[in-house]
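Researcher: Quick sanity check before group meeting.
Model: Go ahead. Protein one:
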Amino acid sequence: MVLLSFDWFLIIEKAILISIVIVASLVIAMYETWGERKVAAFIQDRIGPDRAGFGGILQPLADGMKLFMKEEIIPNSSNKFLFVMGPGLAMLTAMMTSAVIPWGGHLEIMGRTVPLQIADINIGILYVFGVVSLGVYGVMIGGWASNNKFSLMAALRGASQMISYELAMGLSLIALLMLTGTLSLRTIVEQQSTGHWNIWYQPLGFIIFFVCALAECNRTPFDLPEAESELNFGYHQEYSSMKLGFYLFAEYVNMFISCVIMATLFFGGYDIPFVNDAHLYEIWGNWAALAQVVMLMAKVIFGIFVFMWIRWTVPRFRYDQLMNLGWKGLIPLALANMVITAVVALLKYNNWHF
């Protein structure tokens, strides 16, 4: 009889890292709501939240308390099991995508090397796409289970939008994978550690990915599933209390994770520009890993600001414009980018010169 031996230190490390990532994602998503209103106020020459705490810094806590204390309403005509399952699935898929993201280098703790990544799998990008594709079920289940025609119509819009733009997003990444030769997110970051960020080699791929990320997160100008002027409130119209909060939080968590993935794939991830990582670890030790995390967060915060800037600057598309852009604009561009990248990679492989 063979007894299985468990590395309890590894299990404890991963449990702590998972807890930190979940709490950090929720806190960042919570304060994205505050940042969104502050950015909107700045663009519209207003003050924004300023009552709860200094500069309104406690406003997200007040909003969260309000959602917790609101009455829980489940329509009599709804499918109660699916009605509860919808927001839970949306939140679960939003949080699961963070499992393969490298947040920094590594820590040296009690003689052990602890990488700042929950799971370094060699198909990290495929994992992200697989989990993201499950997010559409949270939208569809919530819209259908509500037994409301406006909610269902919004859910159908959301599902069609996500499926359409996932194609162009996937095609844009195929060109990137031709250059990197790997699906591991940590390996992609390490390849950019010398300052050769992928944005310089795949600018068109990044633009396509960024536009598709806006659509995947239901952000303006692609917020058709939540078009208040057309569909009352969207696919979560019948939701209240923390079920509504889960849907709203899932959107902000998705925006945060999208910016992290963009920073990882195109902007070097946790790489600090003009700094040698090995030399930094020799001087700073574990503080070097924390500096890398701060650098990644700086890139992510700038990306989130751009998301918010676009929301309060660009008007919403019509639905036919949305679908035309996805199928007739972005997919052909992504295919052209993939072919050009393949030709350039082939010429480089064969040592041909223009």
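Researcher: Fine. The other one?
Model: Protein two, sequence then structure:
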Amino acid sequence: MTSVGKSITSALVGIAIEKGYISNKNEPIAPYFKKDYAIEKLSTEKEDIQIYHLLTMSAGWDCDDWNENSLGNTMHFPDAPDDFAFTLDLPMIKPNGEYFSYCSGGANLLGEIIRRQSKLSLQDFGDKYLFNPIGVSQNEWFVTPKSTP
């Protein structure tokens, strides 16, 4: 189900761009979070992570759910007081856009960007712009406990 959630989130990003909540896929993500988070080791490479990199799972930070040794593996989320800060603070280990790594933390950040820009929960945004228009009136969302629904 988490993989399906990532696909739905990516569709919602496309809708958010179409509706003007996000300007485009090449927008850097750091400005969405710098006000609320003192992002550790904020380097040029980290500031250059774009929405596109999160959509394609090609951000260069150490985030790989398929590698149990990766600092950003979701098995480490239960120990983190804030899932967003945890992901934003991951160290950079490779160039952005060059390597795929399955990163749930990046997908969570995309959902948070939609929430911040639309002022709707991700579920409400999804219902309003995706599910209700295609006739899906009942759905159930599971949101990580430390992320905003």
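Researcher: One line on it for the slide.
Model: Helices lie at 2-18, 30-33, 44-47, 51-55, 83-88, 104-118, 122-131.
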